[in-house]
Specification:
Largest sheet: 6 strands, mixed
Order of helices and strands: HHEEEEEEEHEEHEEEHEEEEEEEEEHEH
Radius of gyration: 25 Å
Bound molecules: copper (II) ion
Distance between the termini: 83 Å
Amino acid sequence: MRDERGNVGTGTLVGAAGFVVVLAAVLAVFGGRDATAAGPPVDPQVQHAFAEAPAHAAHDLTINAVWADRALRADPEDLMAVADLPVVQGVLGYAPHAAPPLARDYRAHVQVELEVVEKVMELADGVEYRFWTFGGAVPGPMVRVREGDYVTFTLQNHPSSHFPHNIDLHAVSGQGGGAEATLIAPGQQATFGFTALNPGVYVYHCATAPVGMHVANGMYGLIVVEPKEGFSPVDREFYVVQGDFYTRGDFGEPGLQEFDMLRAIDEDAAYVVFNGRVGSLTGDNALQAKVGETVRIFVGNGGPNLASSFHVIGDVFDRVWVEGGAIFNRDVQTTLIPAGGSAVVEFDTNVPASLTLVDHSIFRAFNKGAIGSLVVTGEQDPVVYSGRVDIRPYEPDAEAAR
Ligand SMILES: [Cu+2]
């Protein structure tokens, strides 16, 4: 600021100098993209991951490591008119099964139909709940397309429904992620189109008012947009989505349970579950794998309220594709999955074990349902894990008396 004599005060000069320094720093970090004659900038975290661990390269999730050089509209195929693209039917997967890999290296016009059905199903043994569903399941089916695909999406609201519904796909760039275009009454269907511009793993959910209530009733799932170069193949892929439920009765109270709006507003979940039900991944429903396999889990969190501290007891995530985006991390114990977000976790199974999937906000696991199993069978490796090699009485007082 100038003083009475028109001079610029020292404080202003210092502040201005500070601003210049900050500006220079910002330019140094972010401003390089315009001066990339020698090649586009590489995200340092991604670069680090590649540089430090070449031994894992065969299992790496393939990602667009160079963010400034997005593939879309850079490839000749991106210039093809939608009308010239081959038409294929959408590939869906019902939890815990992931939709199968696309095995396709070209753009397509993908047609997806999804039916909204309101139906009573079990939330736990002896506990029923009127779910609102995509595809008759919670979560709704996993949709899998390829980066650059044009998707024609049709949402159908079954005539037996009592409420209007729609869909907001987080993979969509456009008004409401498709919510406006797909708002339909019972007995209607609506269609819209979008291009899957960004690779990644995205939540979709109903966005009809009251939005929280529609989500709380189970209206969510994942749409996976494979990067153009595809994912590296693995032995097993699973699909797991966490959700929190708000019933009038407390956990385990039998009978048909009603949705409790006040409880939902208070974020006081009666149930926190994987794949829409207590026990969806335990006992006879446990996931299965063999020693020496690589397991990939597409993990979503429908919410509506609670972030998930996703953890597998008895193994380490060798690789985590953080938030389903373009950065991956290694050697992770617990990955945080926001409500309305996702992650991809991968791990190699080393020894036989019954691994336990949990939300490590641990009362949710042992008291509200957020627990599942992945049973790994095969050869023991006592070097990796010996099991108990000794047990005996421990008597420190007797030792001292001697
Ligand atoms: Cu809805």
